[in-house]
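Intended use. Records such as the Vacuolar iron transporter entry shown here are meant for training and evaluating sequence-to-structure methods. They are not intended to support clinical decisions.
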Amino acid sequence: MAAIRAHDQVSLGQVGIQVHANGVEEQKQCQGDEDDNFDYYQRAQWLRAAVLGATDGLVSVASLMMGVGAVRKDMKAMFLAGFAGLVAGACSMAIGEFVSVYTQYDIEIAQLKRERKSNNTGEDKEADTEKKKLPNPVQAAFASALAFSMGGLVPLLAAAFIRKHKARLAVVAAVASLTLVIFGMIGANLGRSPVGRSCARVLVGGWMAMGITFGITKFIGSSTGLRL
């Protein structure tokens, strides 16, 4: 009898362990299903705007500073040009995003009105809910300006305390390149896309922008004798 009881206890213990393991596996499977069902397209909408704004600010300001540095060794001229580009770019991003999102907002509202008219329904809770889901133009404009400014501050801060001209240009290019790689990694990880491909695209694009701006400005300055 003792042997039978011991055997029953072992069997019950095995059943308990198996049930617990099955519960853990089911929980993990549910979590995996939730990850698989997560709508990365919705995340990509705000992610695209944030990464695009920061990358645009970084590349624009760094390219502008490289262009001015190609014909002027003065640190103040290079810094002021970059700062002016940051302010102008942030304002441009804010206005462009505001107009774009407001246009989308008007289109969505008009579509909701047409649907209610075709269904012979008036204002209801569902329509109000749909309106609340629409993008806010003011928030989108502020977010774009903020993202652009954060990206543009990187090359400005990197060159603020470098006195030597060639070292300043090298630091701006190096810091901009490193930051572009970081932006590419962030965008790829949050959007669940290939990291290497994302970083390569952003980095090569940034190099092209800085190189073209530097080369053309240097050529025009050398051929015309123009000095800022």
